[in-house]
């Protein structure tokens, strides 16, 4: 084998592509898919030596890690699985990877259910929740409240540019929850009809800042102005250990075509530009489109972070982070 490129099985590449393209999306779902992909790598690895097996697994983890930068549940999942890989033979390493991935996935599901039960306690019979994007953790709170016999209604923000609000609306309608779908710009107008803003998170920083879908921070600010509490549902794999040592969370910027199609761009361009400039997306034609996928909501606009370990005021989340992560922010997938 020597210095040959470690082999990453095709199914891992496919999962990575699906995460990058957002066919697999949502912080917890991405973490689940990444753990499953590492198990697939272990199952399909052609490695004949323990060292080659470990190299292949690290390469698979890097492939997954490099897909999307903001949701820390992805590196947290990779770290969890890789740390549990143990054994002296390829067979032992393979088995321990598969076991570890399975236990991660079980814990993830269990954490979501527990979190849902805790979050449901904040929701009263007859409440209206206003949602942004699509979050399985946020919806777990609604589901648990419904199971408790409470009736809820929802105002669902469309969530441009990818309209994940439609996924939320679909799920809520399946549960029989009446849904009012609104465009993002209508949020302030509808806040007076809401009892809670309920959102998920892609990452939570040590100071209690919430990194979530673009538009969350503006929503939280106007919710504070209207006196509507903001509840963030996020299991502890969304806690970002690097922020304990002062690192900031990278905000993903995505393709401008999610915001403006080539056709739309061409029609803007065809209106009279004094310099007559024309060009393809990204070229110097005087029209810039920016598409950040996430923003940062400062802790002072967040009322509660609901995790499977209980609910916390954002300022106290750092204590839980230290307990769960200590000072370990290593990257076991590094070459
Ligand atoms: O883990 P759960 O609660 O499902 O989702 C958490 C967050 O992940 C999503 O990001 P994207 O749609 O993948 O960009 C949204 O920002 C959502 O709030």
Automatic annotation (TrEMBL):
Catalytic residue positions: 133 (proton acceptor), 202 (proton donor)
Keyword line: Carbohydrate metabolism, Initiation factor, Isomerase, Protein biosynthesis
InterPro entries: IF-2B-related (IPR000649), IF_2B-like_C (IPR042529), Initiation_fac_2B_a/b/d (IPR011559), M1Pi_N (IPR027363), NagB/RpiA_transferase-like (IPR037171), R15Pi (IPR005250)
Cell cycle keyword on record: no
Catalysed reactions listed for this entry: alpha-D-ribose 1,5-bisphosphate = D-ribulose 1,5-bisphosphate
Short name of one Pfam family: IF-2B
Comp. bias (Basic and acidic residues): 256-267
Region listing for Disordered, in residue ranges: 256-295
UniProt family annotation: Belongs to the eIF-2B alpha/beta/delta subunits family. R15P isomerase subfamily.
Role according to the record: Catalyzes the isomerization of ribose 1,5-bisphosphate (R15P) to ribulose 1,5-bisphosphate (RuBP).
Extra facts: Reaction proceeds via a cis-phosphoenolate intermediate.
Listed name of the protein: Ribose 1,5-bisphosphate isomerase
Organism: Natrinema pellirubrum (strain DSM 15624 / CIP 106293 / JCM 10476 / NCIMB 786 / 157)
């Amino acid at each position: 084998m020597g210095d040959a490129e470690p082999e990453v099985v095709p199914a891992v590449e496919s999962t990575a592509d699906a995460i990058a393209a957002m066919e697999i999306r949502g912080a917890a779902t991405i973490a689940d898919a990444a753990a499953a992909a590492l198990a697939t790598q272990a199952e399909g690895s052609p490695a004949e030596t323990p060292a080659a097996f470990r190299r292949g697994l690290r390469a698979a983890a890097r492939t997954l890690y490099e897909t999307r930068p903001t949701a820390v549940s992805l590196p947290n999942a990779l770290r969890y699985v890789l740390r549990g890989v143990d054994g002296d033979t390829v067979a032992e390493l393979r088995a321990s990877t598969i076991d570890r991935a399975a236990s991660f996935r079980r814990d993830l599901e269990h954490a979501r259910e527990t979190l849902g039960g805790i979050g449901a306690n904040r929701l009263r019979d007859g409440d209206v929740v206003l949602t942004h994007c699509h979050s399985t953790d946020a919806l777990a709170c609604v589901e648990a409240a419904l199971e408790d016999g409470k009736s809820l209604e929802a105002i669902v923000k469309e969530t441009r540019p990818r309209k994940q609000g439609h996924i939320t609306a679909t799920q809520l309608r399946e549960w029989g929850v009446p849904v009012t779908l609104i465009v993002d710009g209508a949020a302030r107008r509808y806040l007076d009809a809401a009892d809670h803003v309920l959102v998920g998170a892609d990452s939570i920083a040590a100071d209690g800042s919430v990194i979530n879908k673009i538009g969350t921070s503006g929503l939280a600010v106007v919710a504070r102005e209207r006196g509507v509490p903001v509840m963030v549902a996020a299991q502890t794999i969304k806690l970002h250990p690097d922020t304990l040592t002062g690192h900031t969370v990278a905000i993903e910027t995505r393709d401008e075509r999610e915001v403006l199609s080539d056709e739309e761009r061409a029609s803007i361009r065809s209106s009279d530009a004094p310099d007559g400039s024309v060009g393809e997306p990204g070229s110097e034609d005087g029209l810039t489109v920016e598409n950040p996928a996430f923003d940062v909501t400062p802790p002072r606009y967040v009322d509660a972070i609901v995790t499977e370990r209980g609910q916390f005021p954002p300022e106290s989340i750092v204590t839980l982070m230290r307990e769960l992560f200590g000072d370990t922010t290593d990257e076991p997938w590094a070459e």
